[in-house]
Amino acid sequence: MRYDDAIKFIYNLELFGIKMGLDNITRFLDHLGNPQDSFQSIHVAGTNGKGSVSSLLFSVLCKAGYKTGVFTSPHLVDFRERFRTDAGNIDKRSLAEFVGQNKQFIIDARITFFEISTALAFWYFRKMGVEVAVVEVGLGGRLDATNVIKPKVSVITHIDFDHTKNLGPTLDLIAREKAGIIKSGVPLVTGEKRAELLNLFRDTCKERGTKMFRSVKIARDFEYTAAGMRFNLKLNGSDEKLSSSLAGAHQIDNIGIVLKCVELLNRDSLPVSDKAIRGGLKNCHWPARFQKVAAKPTIILDAAHNADGTRALVATFRKAYPARKALLLCGFLERPDLDVIMKEYAPITKRAVLTRPDSTRAAEIEGVVWAAVGAGIDFDVKLNIGEAVDRILQIAGKDDIVLMSGSHYTLGEAIKRLHALRDQERIKLLTADITLLNG
Predict the structure, then answer these.
(1) Are residue 350 and residue 261 in the same domain, yes or no?
(2) What's the structural domain count of the chain?
(3) For residues 136 and 73, is the Cβ–Cβ distance under 8 A?
(4) CA separation, residue 315 to residues 265, 287, 318, 333, 376 (Å)
């Protein structure tokens, strides 16, 4: 099977929507010879931060010398971004091979888009001889297709309102779905701070015969740098100034989760040195997380797509660029908190270009417009994201800061346009490829 045909087949499965439950994925993995049993794993759930924690853990474990894999979602530009090993993204030949070998089973068993993605990740990790994989939950936890693994450590980052149609309208219900990844004998690390949710996790751990651990506490102050941030950390008893490619107080919280995971792994036959921690934090690559991709004007990409993520983005912007305002490009999938999101943006926004990602789940532009009006933001509207990118850059002077944010779909399309403008020599990017695609 050709790669293009394989990708088209996979994307067509999105038409069947989301199907929660483990029966399908269990049958598919059994058909594949249960590749998830060929490697050790760390399972990461949460509302915000789970992708960053997964990428940080992946980077640290790579630096520790392990053959490492990471499965994350969604992607920005290329589907292959979801499946990484220390050798890079999954190659096109392997992806086409997997689909070609299993196409009929997928059709007969009605395997969904995320189920095929999960199975492909596990199959590819086995093929590549991965020793330890970091596996990010797609949606919720209890009924997510990834919840077939028995990890060395389970992680729940921070809980907030997201995917309420699938997970429930309250934080308690959402947290209970996330707590579904807690397994007997597998320690839980959490970065959650709300007492009522911590009690829920603690009680679940007690019921399932395991222990809950809080993330390592680190002072949330940091110095913004061109390469990310520098912050103070007590490592192995001594105070150090460490660097991270991911910037923001919320990323310090995520690093605290990673450090606690490493502490538990060191107790359980997966030793990780302080040198690996330093190198992993410094060299982690997780695109569109307060990522500076151009200067004159400064262009920053951040995939904050809910209220909690937007607050973190705004706090980081204020730290990095005190007393400055940005030109904002944003577009969202349908969600109930657009008014809250735009009010969070307002204090740092000089002017906005509102747009709409190319997705059947995109928020109607009228809702985004009214949210901007309610927040007191001056704006233009460009329904096509490529045109929105052109417009925001037309408005921007060389000393301006352009902030592109919202859904992964929005950022993915914006990145494609930025690459096209780079190829036309109309802008100069700081990196040859924003997402570091390979193959």
Answers:
(1) no
(2) 2
(3) yes
(4) 32, 19, 5, 23, 19
User: What's the pTM?
Assistant: 0.94
**437 confidence band (pLDDT: 50, 70, 90):** very low
Q: Tens digits of per-residue pLDDT, 306-333?
A: 999 999 999 999 999 999 999 999 999 9
Q: What is the DSSP string of 304-367?
A: --SHHHHHHHHHHHHHHSTT--EEEEEE-BS-TTHHHHHHHHGGGEEEEEE---SSTTBPPHHH
Task: Report phi then psi at 73, rounded to 5.
Answer: -160, 155
Residue ranges of alpha helices (H) inside 128-223 are 164-167, 171-178, 195-207
Residue 436: inside a domain: no
Q: Is 194 exposed, middle or buried (0-12, 13-18, 19+ CB in 10 A)?
A: middle
Cα separation, 287 vs 82, whole angstroms: 12
pLDDT band at 165 (very low <50, low <70, confident <90, very high): low
Tell me: cis bond preceding 297? Omega within 30 of 0 counts. yes
Residues 148 and 245 placed together within one structural domain of the fold: yes
Q: How many angstroms separate the CA atoms of 152 and 32, rounded?
A: 22
323 and 189 belong to one structural domain: no
Rounded to a whole number, what is the largest CA-CA distance in the chain? 60
The 10 Å CB-count burial string (b at 16+, else e) for 229-260 is bebebeeeeeeeebbbbbbbbbbbbbbbbbbb
Predicted pLDDT of residue 152: 96
CB 367 within 8 Å of CB 338: yes
How deeply is 317 buried, as exposed, middle or buried, from its count of CB atoms within 10 A (0-12, 13-18, 19+)? buried
Q: Minimal CA–CA distance to 320: which of 343, 344, 300, 303?
A: 300
Distance CA 150, CA 184 (A): 9
Q: How far apart are CA 275 and CA 272, in angstroms?
A: 8
Range name among 258-262, 293-297, 431-435 with the lowest pLDDT average: 431-435
Task: Please report whether residue 241 resides in a domain.
Answer: yes
